Automatic annotation (TrEMBL):
Stretch list, region Disordered: 68-100
Protein name per the record: EF-hand domain-containing protein
Entry keywords, A to Z: Metal-binding, Repeat, Signal
GO molecular function, one term: calcium ion binding
Gene3D superfamilies membership: EF-hand
Residues covered by the EF-hand domain: 30-65, 124-159
Keyword field contains Signal: yes
Amino acid sequence: MKIKTLTAIGLATVLGATALPVMAASGEGGKGERAAKMFETLDTDGSGTITQAEFEAKAAERFAEVDANGDGLLSPEEMAEASPRKGKFREGGREGVSDDRRAEFAARMVERKDTNGDGLLSVEEIAAREDVFARLDTNGDGALSLEEFEAMRGKHKRR
């Protein structure tokens, strides 16, 4: 798979569907501690930075996990099933995202990015015109520091 392609799917697949459940499962610490745990998950060599290769490897791993039938394409159903915090509602307050909301989000993503009209997303369609890693690497050194990572998390937080 192309480097640019894997990088672009990183934010949606790795941060959204891999690291967030790890962070949510811990249930401990404040925002900074949770970000540090997520960062640690992506920093597979323990160097204190996330390289583009680490980012892409996790993205490819997560894409393969989400691609339940192994056809190299993601259906809205596969994406919704892999969504973080699946089905974690509690009475009296929201803890997660409902099945309907996850399905709606997946359908909108397919609608926006499905350039060939097959109702599925390829890695290339997901990545079209995006270079996520380059946007996150604000100092241009080829690696993400914890500070850059935390800054990204602040910008992409749900409100």
